[in-house]
Specification:
Elements (H helix, E strand, L loop, with lengths): L9 E10 L6 H19 L3 E9 L3 H9 L4 H18 L6 E4 L3 H16 L3 E11 L4 E3 L19 E10 L5 H10 L4 E2 L1 H12 L5 E2 L1 E2 L7 E2 L2 E6 L1 H6 L1 H4 L10 H4 L8 E5 L3 H14 L8 E4 L2 E3 L2 E2 L10 H8 L1 H11 L6 E2 L2 H31 L16 H18 L3 H22 L1 H6 L3 H22 L4 H10 L15 H8 L28
Parallel strand pairs: 1-2, 1-12, 2-3, 7-13, 12-13, 14-16
Antiparallel strand pairs: 4-5, 4-6, 6-8, 9-11, 10-11, 14-15
Helix pairs in contact: 2-3, 5-6, 11-12, 13-15, 13-17, 14-15, 14-17, 15-17, 17-18
The structure holds 5'-O-[(L-methionyl)-sulphamoyl]adenosine (MSP).
């Protein structure tokens, strides 16, 4: 079982599998939007991509949530799954697999994996005593609890004392192997601050952790001892593997891992870093499987400094936001305004201001005024020239020519905010360039060729900006491309076969032949009004 992933152009990435204890909130939407942007960027380059998302449905947290609703856990989860899927559709998220840990094929994968780890001698029965945070589904050290006995994240839920017999996974056995992994693959954990956190944690010495629970029905039983239910995290991480099965394929590890494994990127929030960067690689090593390539732990969306979450009840409803402002607006705001890896406070006034400034005023207006001038000064035709014919003023060209590579590098490094800033630099320079060069005066002076040159330079910059931002704002970019007379729709995945060639040309400034047949002009982003006070 060693020949995984022979096609170099495959790129597989995951969001976490979200707890199905309640409908999705903006924090869940954040990770998924980021993952979708990266997946789209990969597809834009012509790579084949598998984006996995899904739900984590077992364990006490979910069982309690279902009981509170008076529902059978499966019925409860089915409802929650519908709400996740509908939010992903609304946010224009193109996931390839939706992994549900309550699905039958997952049981077979978990059992086979458990058996391998068992056969390695890495599972044993022992006594577990300690404080358990059901919201984290994690045992906590006493020093990690607040004065009133809550965990640091779920400050309104008391940790519960547990004293029970559990099966344990021999994590301590993998101490040296994990340290070697972090040393030999320094970018296995990103960003650097998260890597350091993990190094610190592992450096203190790893303890075995319990992988079963008693007095819990909702989950898979431990093979051969059904008094015990498999710990939700042991089960959930394997949801990434089950997701790799083709529909209808026999659920075996060999089948699941044959094409897309190892995963290129696990995109997660910083609260679940330990599970992904410590427990998961150790579990995989125990089962004799290759390890994922990278784990990126992003920050929290906060409200008044506290992590937004269902448990604290301080979240913003993403359905309401997307209905009010549209998917591109949300995607743009979260990708541009929050540097991936850092926390970011959400504020609706800032949200409206950023979108109006960047998308309505800077980008939208640039397209609008340029198309307006082409109508007036060139009878609505595109400028009849190519970059090679441009004369002396190279202000914009100089910014434009390196832009494609700078933005590609930023996407590759998951610096989405930087990618947006780079594009905006060009857009803003173009607005200034128009003001400074005043094509309306040149037209009056009969300098037609100069007018066309200015309009070419600007139009090409708008096109490049739209192309480079298309993973983030696919609807707006498609609209701009249409108005510029191109038939590319950034939401159409069937166009991806030719993407490699298209990408080589379209991602660079000035590479396109003259493109005179412009489409119908219309505003691409209407100014937003702030509707609610916050
Ligand atoms: N079920 C586990 C993950 C299992 S993965 C095999 C879980 N689920 S969760 O629903 O609680 O969280 C899922 C993800 O959402 C985590 O990465 C978490 O960091 C992220 N977020 C939840 N609230 C968030 C914010 N307020 N801000 C940003 N991301 C947040 O953990």
């Amino acid at each position: 079982m060693n020949n995984y992933k022979t096609d170099l152009h495959n790129f597989s990435l995951t969001t976490p599998l979200y707890y199905a204890n309640g409908v999705p909130h903006i924090g869940s939407a954040y990770t998924t939007m980021v993952a979708d942007v990266l997946a789209r960027f990969q597809r834009l380059q012509g790579n084949s991509v598998l984006l996995i998302t899904g739900t984590d449905e077992h364990g006490q947290k979910i069982q309690r949530a279902a009981t509170e609703q008076g529902l059978d856990p499966q019925v409860h989860c089915d409802r929650i799954v519908d709400s996740f899927k509908s939010l992903w559709d609304k946010l224009n998220i193109k996931y390839d697999r939706f992994s549900r840990t309550s699905a039958e094929p997952h049981r077979a994968i978990v059992n086979e994996f458990f058996q391998r780890v068992w056969d390695r001698g890495d599972i044993y029965l022992d006594r577990q005593q300690g404080w358990y945070c059901v919201s984290c589904e994690e045992f906590k050290e006493e020093r990690e609890l607040t004065e009133d006995g809550c965990c640091g994240i779920h400050t309104n839920k008391k940790a519960e004392w547990r004293d029970e017999e559990n099966y344990f996974f021999r994590l301590s056995k993998y101490q040296a192997q994990l340290e070697e992994l972090y040393r030999s693959q320094p970018d296995f954990i990103q960003p650097e601050s998260r890597r350091n956190e993990v190094l610190n944690f592992v450096g203190q010495g790893l303890k075995d952790f319990s992988i079963s629970r008693v007095n819990l029905d909702w989950g898979f039983p431990i093979p051969g001892d059904d008094k015990h239910t498999i710990y939700v995290w042991f089960d959930a991480l394997l949801g990434y593997v089950t997701a790799l099965l083709e529909p209808g394929q026999e659920p075996t590890l060999d089948n699941a891992l044959s094409k897309w494994w190892p995963i290129d990127l696990h995109l997660i929030g910083k609260d679940i870093l330990r599970f992904h960067a410590v427990y998961w690689p150790a579990m995989l090593a125990s089962a004799g499987l290759p390890l994922p390539k990278k784990v990126f732990g992003h920050g929290f969306l906060t409200k008044d400094g506290l992590k937004m979450g269902k448990t604290l009840g301080n979240t913003i409803d993403p359905f309401e936001l997307v209905d009010r402002y549209g998917s591109d607006a949300l995607r743009y705001y979260f990708l541009k305004e929050i540097e991936l890896g850092k926390d970011g406070d959400f504020n609706e006034t800032r949200f409206v201001n950023v979108l109006n400034a960047d998308l309505a005023n800077d980008l939208g207006n640039l397209l609008n005024r340029t198309l307006g001038m082409l109508k007036k000064y060139c009878q609505g035709n595109g400028p009849q020239l190519t970059a090679a014919e441009l004369s002396s003023d190279r202000t914009i060209q100089q910014i434009g020519e390196g832009l494609g590579d700078r933005v590609i590098n930023a996407y590759e490094a998951l610096q989405f905010s930087k990618a947006c800033e780079e594009v905006l630099t060009l857009v803003r320079a173009c607005n200034k360039y128009i003001d400074d060069s005043a094509p309306w005066s040149l037209f009056k002076q009969g300098k037609q060729s100069e007018v066309e040159q200015i309009l070419y330079v600007v139009l090409e910059s708008v096109r490049l900006s739209a192309y480079l931002l298309s993973p983030i704002i696919p609807n707006i970019s498609s609209n701009i491309y249409q108005q510029l007379g191109f038939s590319i729709n950034f939401n159409d995945e069937t166009q991806s076969e030719t993407n490699k060639d298209i990408f080589a040309i379209h991602s660079q400034w000035g590479k396109l032949p003259a493109n005179p047949s412009l489409g119908k002009a219309s505003p691409v982003f209407s100014k937003l009004e702030l509707l609610s006070e916050n």
